[in-house]
Amino acid sequence: MKILITGGTVFVSRYLAEYFVGKDHEVTVMNRGTHPQVKGVRLIRADKSEPCSSFRNMTFDLVLAVNIYTSGEMNALLESLGDYGTVIFISSSAVYPETTALPFRETDPVGRNAVWGDYGWNKIGAEQTLLQRCPDAYVLRPPYFYGKYQNIYREAFVFDCAEKGMPFYLPKDGTMPLQFFHVGDLCRLIEAIEEKKPEDHIINTGNRPIDINTYVEWCYDVVGAELVKVFVDAAHPQRGYFPFHDYAYVLDTHRQSLLLPETWPEIVGLEEEYAWYREHPQEVMKKTAYETYIREHF
């Protein structure tokens, strides 16, 4: 296939570009050209906020809108395209209001989420713009991504604590649920959508939910470190010492399961991420504030 990927240099879009190049597809990426590119891609230098005339005479079988965050960016992308086939937008589960009953379903109304603020609200605008202009497009709503090239300081923070032999400070009783989705599973889901063209055009994605106790245990196991848990009461702001918001949510992923019955075992995905992180610690946006808070308050 001829595939266009917006982005192509950081985490999810980088993984997608590498994956589809590895499957011998013709991959074009659109970015500003300020970071190293995946070997084998064709680069179109462009600012995603403005229409780009370079695409007008190009044909794409598949368009992956990955790093699109607003209605304006979605409009700019669609106005740039000439002839194209399937469009898949990587949106977010942040489009569901936090007051919605769990699990969030694709049929639930979207709206502003107090935890995610403008990020989720803008993703809603991008979804609506896409589906108004391209009704046959697909919208994926993932939870937290993980895997190789993860540049946000989440798993890496837990790995760092494990490597330093630190106890790990967990909010409350550690039972808050989290939900993840491996970027490799995203690639396979995209392939399934392109092959099967499902009737449902909005699809929640994700592995089974796990609690934060389990998440931290797995991260320490991957490092091979002994875990000592310290449970922290609600008097301390959770984001002061823990890399996730005080926000429990679970997605219904039935539609995904019809296309992708099995997902990566989480421990395997974490092993992959840790192996990459050990070789590329400089590529993660670290936050020293977590350890500072721990040192000053516990």
How would you portray this structure in words?
With about 300 residues, the protein is an alpha/beta fold. It folds into 2 domains: about 1-145 and about 180-205, Rossmann fold; about 155-175 and about 210-250 and about 265-295, Alpha-Beta Complex (UDP-galactose 4-epimerase, domain 1). Helix content is about 35%, strand content about 20%. The chain has helices at about 10-20, 70-80, 120-135, 155-165, 185-195, 210-225, 240, 255-260, 265-280, 290-295, and strands at about 1-5, 25-30, 40-45, 60-65, 85-90, 140, 145, 170, 175-180, 180, 200-205, 210, 230. Helix 1 (about 10-20) links the parallel strand 1 and strand 2 (about 25-30). Helix 1 (about 10-20) crosses helix 5 and helix 6 crosses helix 9 (about 265-280).
